[in-house]
Design brief:
Layout (H helix, E strand, L loop, with lengths): L1 H11 L12 E5 L7 E7 L5 E8 L5 E8 L5 E7 L9 E7 L5 E7 L18 E7 L6 E7 L12 E8 L5 E7 L28 E7 L6 E7 L19 E8 L5 E7 L18 E2 L5 E10 L6 E7 L9 E3 L1 E7 L5 E7 L24 E7 L6 E6 L11 E4 L5 E6 L17 E6 L6 E7 L7 E4 L5 E4 L4 E5 L6 E7 L8 E2 L4 E7 L7 E2 L2 E2 L2 E2 L7 E4 L2 E2 L2 E4 L3 E5 L9 E8 L2 E10 L5 E2 L10 E2 L2 E2 L12 E2 L3 E7 L25 E4 L7 E6 L7 E7 L9 E10 L2 E2 L3 E6 L1
């Protein structure tokens, strides 16, 4: 069993380096539940924060949940709504708050029973966009409508998605997205009233972008226009018969005159592009033989939607080595001088300006990973103020959202390998989520922090005092807290990389932040067969119960969740240091939260597990396990076991099994588990699982096979093993 102690101990006690940071943030978690995913953040004039999430109610019904908090992240109100489709749950994609404090949410629904209140458009039988306005107290729907059509240019329905929303000072609602509907509602005199049409022999169905303005009371449409074209470049011979242009608008912003800027991605080679702009040609291509190149675009419509102020492609400067490449704009913001900040993701070949923060693609240009980028385009779209890569794309949402503060500085959040971010070397590497503040000219990073995945990266808004609030998928809201001597950025399962809003009894967790523990890191101390609850004068409290500590450093503390939390619904986390008490967030308590210890980053098809083959050797690409053989992995987050009494911090000598059933899953079946229980010689909370690999003659000679661990009703992130026939 020395192998398990040697492999897993290195992962359990791994330390983050102790460094300084220029910004301090604190997390607040909103109640989205263990299976929820936070998607949108908006703020009102008082600094109250609105979070919109996909959740599952206690019945299992998927719903959209809107949550209102005060400026400190304390929940004030909550409202659930949506249809009942489980195959394609309703998806919120944009949110904004009007001058009266009412919350407007847009998104996409395939539910036939999506709630409609005084709809401005007729209901459609196909996938449609939706626009919902909730009152400021989140007590009721003021109005709700579907937005879309029913007919496509070829066989099949004309589906529509609403992807972003902006409001003007009167509360009028501007929605953008994508539609394949030939009967999408447009208004007379709008810029483009003709929609998708079949091309070639009619095999393909084009997709167009759109902009629709709805009156603030939801009773009328001010204007509605398409933006798209039917054709694309194709060099695939007869395969081009089905090649069509697709245009998707992902982001929208509005200026003081009522002019609207939209941004997104396109394969359409004949969009309406105005003379003199920076991108006259699409540089895109679609063919059935696997070639797919997609360009970004930006378009500014004059108030009233009857004409373009300007429109431009945002193409790659040159095609990279991939046969598939996509430049996509996911967020836009308007500066007071009329220039446009555009952020998103791009492959190798992005146009970058001289002196940019990251002039070349960061990392290895794998075909499936786009890097983040951010660019500023001048007010007439005739050139770049700056354009630069920003972080890599191994993690989702490389650059998720942008905002501009009153000084003109640019705030952005997203996800990246922290090693590839253009941050100062002194920035602690706490995870793959990041928040960054750039100078207005994009020449320097004024401040930057990283945090565990899910703690930020989903959206960012500026509060009335000018400080940022960043949202993560876990329901984490990171709020700026300047002047604090210490800051807790996020809490994650020690075997995972995702920030969590729940903990389980005996789960090994890592707390990430600034100034949490001693400058000189300390490893855990074992006394009387158990880890102590204090290191260098530092303790971690779970509802005032001190947790066993495995490691304590300035940027990271590793602890074991006390078993006593099993009797609680929520747990308050605090860190006691020699200089005072650091107040942490409230987290939920789950029966289990399994994650498997891994030896590499969580890239597809899943990070490689720290595992032993049947002969006790370490599993690797050079030493794969045989198909049908037994392998060993280690995990934490199994919850309570069948042992007696309190085992907090105990080194396991008796092999107790988890109370909840343990399964190892593949995409096809559940595998044979020969042992699941305490890992001998390691702290209680680390479990060892021996299971038999699938025996499949159809496997390649060497394959990286993905798995998941299920304990009770909770399922881990994907992990992988190298397997040979």
């Amino acid at each position: 069993m020395c192998h398990s102690a040697r492999i897993v101990a290195a992962l359990i006690f791994i330390a983050a380096s102790s460094r300084a940071a220029s910004n301090q943030f604190v997390p607040r978690y909103v109640p989205i539940g263990p299976s929820g995913s936070a998607r949108l953040i908006a703020t009102d004039a008082s600094g109250d924060i609105f979070i919109v999430a996909n959740v599952a109610e206690s019945s299992g019904r998927p719903q959209i949940r809107a949550i209102k908090t005060d400026p400190l992240g304390n929940p004030l109100a909550s409202f659930d709504f949506g249809g009942s489709s489980e195959t394609f749950p309703d998806l919120p994609s944009g949110a904004a708050v009007d001058p009266q404090g009412n919350l407007v949410i847009v998104g996409t629904t395939a539910s036939t029973d999506f709630p409609l209140v005084s709809p401005v458009f007729p209901a459609t039988s196909t996938q449609a966009g939706f626009v919902v306005k909730l009152d400021a107290q989140l007590s009721k729907i003021l109005f709700s409508t579907r937005l879309g059509g029913s007919q496509a240019a070829s066989l099949g329905p004309g589906s529509t998605s609403a992807n972003a929303v902006a409001l003007d000072t009167s509360g009028n609602i501007y929605v953008t997205g994508a539609t394949a509907a030939t009967d999408f509602p447009t208004t007379s005199g709008a810029f483009q009233t003709t929609g998708p049409a079949p091309t070639g022999f009619g095999f393909g169905s084009p997709t167009f972008g759109f902009v629709t303005e709805i009156a603030s009371n939801g009773r009328s449409v001010v204007y509605s226009t398409y933006y798209g074209s039917n054709t694309t470049n194709c060099s695939g011979g007869s395969s081009c018969l089905s090649a069509v242009g697709t245009t998707t608008a992902n982001a929208i912003a509005i200026d003081g005159t009522g002019a609207v800027v939209i941004g997104g991605n396109t394969t359409a080679n004949s969009l309406s592009i105005t003379p003199g702009v920076l991108g006259q040609q699409c540089g895109c291509m679609v063919s059935a033989n696997g070639v797919y190149h997609q360009s970004g675009f930006l378009a500014k419509f004059a108030a009233g939607g009857r004409s373009l102020v300007w429109a431009t492609y945002v193409p790659l400067a040159q095609m990279g080595p991939q046969s598939v490449s996509t430049l996509s704009i996911t967020s836009v913001a308007l500066a007071p001088d009329g220039s446009v900040i555009a952020a998103g993701n791009a492959p190798v070949g992005l146009f970058v300006t001289t002196g940019s923060l990251q002039p070349s693609y960061p990392g290895t240009p794998f075909g499936q990973y786009n890097a983040g980028f951010i660019a500023r385009i001048n007010a007439l779209a005739t050139g770049y103020v700056f354009s630069t890569y920003f972080g890599d794309g191994v993690y989702q949402s490389p650059t998720g959202a942008v905002a501009i503060d009153s000084q003109g500085n640019i705030w952005l959040t997203g996800g990246s390998d922290p090693n590839t971010l253009p941050f100062l070397p002194s920035t602690p590497q706490l995870g793959s989520a990041f928040i960054a503040e750039l100078s207005a000219d994009g020449s320097s990073v004024l401040s930057g922090i990283t945090a565990p995945a899910g703690a930020a990266g989903q959206g960012i808004r500026l509060l009335p005092n000018g400080s940022p609030a960043a949202l993560g998928t876990t329901g984490s809201v990171l709020l700026n807290a300047p002047g604090q001597p210490a800051s807790l950025m996020g809490i994650a399962n020690s075997a995972g990389v995702q920030a969590s809003n729940n903990v389980a009894p005996y789960e090994l967790v890592s707390l990430y932040g600034i100034g949490l523990g001693p400058t000189t890191p300390l490893s855990g101390i074992i006394q009387n067969g158990a880890f102590t609850t204090s290191l260098g004068g530092v303790q971690v409290l779970f509802n005032n119960v001190a947790a066993p500590l495995l490691y304590a450093g300035s940027n990271q503390i590793n602890a074991v969740v006390p078993s006593s939390v099993a009797a609680q619904d929520v747990v308050h986390i605090q860190i006691r240091t020699p200089t005072g008490l650091l107040d942490g967030p409230l987290l939920g308590v789950a029966p289990s939260q399994p994650e498997v210890f891994q030896s590499g980053p969580p890239v597809p098809p899943g990070g490689v597990a720290a595992a032993l083959n049947h002969d006790g050797s370490v599993n690797s690409a050079g030493n794969p396990a045989a198909s049908g053989s037994v392998v060993t992995i280690w995990a934490t987050g199994a919850g309570l076991n069948n042992g007696p009494g309190n085992q907090d911090g105990l080194i396991a000598s008796i092999l107790y099994a988890p109370l909840l059933p343990v399964s190892v899953l593949t995409d096809l079946d559940s595998l044979e588990v020969l042992y699941a229980g305490n890992a001998p010689g390691l702290v209680t909370g680390v479990i060892q699982i021996n299971f038999r690999l699938p025996s499949r003659s159809g496997l390649p000679n060497l394959s990286q096979v993905p798995f998941q661990l299920q304990i009770g009703g909770a399922i881990s992130s994907r992990f992988s093993l190298f397997v040979t026939r």
